[in-house]
């Protein structure tokens, strides 16, 4: 395991900074899906047809024999599953920003976005949950 890099001015590490930060999401854990490219099982199978395997558990990396061993694979981080209304990069951004504003005494937030804006809806959902007023422009 590599040592955590020290932050400028004080020798604090990224791990220390993150563990000392207040977060709003109940769990910052993000589901990771492993997608494997498999040959198509439908006969006759032209060489350009593929099937995909979607694993929500870690694939065997210890030499286990499975159908997907040796196949091309990639992992997808599912931030869209973090929160039902505030998901993806909006959830990550608001998760760190809103507790910081509350600690500094903010009672209101002004955000830009129309009535159908995903950002405005996500901000509103999180602020309303914590009894803070929302003003949208």
From TrEMBL:
Q: Which domain of life is it from?
A: Eukaryota
Biased composition, class Basic and acidic residues, residue ranges: 64-73
Cofactor(s) needed: pyridoxal 5'-phosphate
- What Gene Ontology terms describe what this protein does at the molecular function level? lyase activity
Gene3D superfamilies given in the database record: 3.40.50.1100
Region: Disordered; residue ranges are: 39-73
Q: Does the keyword Magnesium apply?
A: no
The answer on whether this UniProt entry bears the keyword Protein biosynthesis reads no
What are the protein's UniProt keywords?
Pyridoxal phosphate
> What family does this chain come from, according to its entry?
Belongs to the ACC deaminase/D-cysteine desulfhydrase family.
For this entry, the protein name equals Os01g0695500 protein
């Amino acid at each position: 395991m590599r040592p955590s890099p020290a932050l400028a001015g004080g020798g604090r590490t990224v791990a220390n900074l993150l563990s000392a930060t207040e977060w709003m999401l109940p769990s910052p854990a993000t589901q990771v899906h492993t997608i494997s490219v498999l040959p198509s099982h439908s006969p006759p199978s032209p060489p350009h047809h593929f099937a995909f395997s979607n694993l929500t558990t870690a694939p065997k990396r210890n030499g286990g024999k499975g159908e997907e061993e040796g196949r091309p694979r990639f992992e997808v981080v599912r931030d869209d599953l973090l929160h039902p209304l505030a998901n993806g990069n909006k959830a990550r951004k608001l998760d760190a920003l809103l507790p910081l504003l509350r600690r500094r005494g903010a009672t209101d937030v002004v955000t830009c976005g129309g009535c159908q804006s995903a950002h405005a809806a996500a901000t509103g959902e999180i602020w309303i949950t914590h009894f803070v007023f929302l003003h949208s422009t």
